[in-house]
Amino acid sequence: MPRRHVRSLWIGDVAVIMATFVAAVMLCFMAVIGGALVLGYRPVVVTSGSMAPVVEAGDIVLVKPHNGESLGPPQVIHFVSESHDSGFLHRIIAVEDGSYVTKGDANPSIDSATVAGSSVSGVARVLVPGVGRLLLFFGDPSLMAGLLLIVVVGAAIVLTRQQRHLTC
């Protein structure tokens, strides 16, 4: 077998292994998020370092919807404010007159406004470290789905070409 032909088979093998790895990671990601959705949890991608070092930018936190249960320190809640539509994920450090005093773990001071119970959208339950980094990088889930499609199609093309070389 010519040396050049062996090299192209080796490159094809590496491409298939990489594509398989990326596809497996993406499928695991989708399984975790899908399972969380079925159980009633909502994934929140952390976009800032305000909760470092425990929760970093690029982590995903599975948030259980708040159904009015009593909350207090040291629970981590997700809440929406008028100034930030996507919401905040901060720790409750005190309860004052039915509102929550919150603070990001990495922030030097408490948040400027208290959080009303009606503004709490959920309570953090599960931390999935680093999984959201791809989402932060691409900025849009549809771009990530497109990448997965390209990887899978590319792997299929490489596998098809390898099969042709092996049968000839």
State the gist of this model.
This protein has 168 residues and is of the alpha+beta class. The protein has one domain: Ribbon (Umud Fragment, subunit A).
What features would you describe in this structure?
The structure is a single chain. The protein has one domain: Umud Fragment, subunit A (Ribbon). It is elongated. Helix 1 packs antiparallel against helix 3. A hairpin with a 2-residue loop joins strand 3 (76-81) and strand 4. With 168 residues, the chain is of the alpha+beta class. The chain contains three helices and seven strands. A seven-stranded antiparallel sheet has the order 1-2-7-3-4-5-6. The chain starts with a helix and ends with a helix.
Q: Secondary-structure map with pairings?
A:
Elements: H1 3-38, E1 42-45, E2 60-65, E3 76-81, E4 84-96, E5 99-103, E6 115-116, E7 120-128, H2 133-138, H3 141-167
Antiparallel strand pairs: 1-2, 2-7, 3-4, 3-7, 4-5, 5-6
The overall number of domains is 1
Q: Could you say what the CATH topology is called?
A: Umud Fragment, subunit A
Structural class: alpha+beta
Mean pLDDT over all positions: 82
The helix fraction, in percent, is: 40-55%
Number of strands: 7
Number of helices: 3
Q: What is the rounded Rg? A: 22 Å
CATH architecture descriptor: Ribbon
Strand content: 25-35%
Largest beta-sheet characterization? 7 strands, antiparallel
Q: What is the CATH homologous superfamily assignment?
A: Umud Fragment, subunit A
The CATH first-level class comes to Mainly Beta
User: Could you give the distance between the termini?
Assistant: 12 Å
Side by side, the strands of the main sheet go: 1-2-7-3-4-5-6
List the uncertain runs: none
CA-based shape = elongated
What pattern of helices and strands is seen along the backbone? HEEEEEEEHH
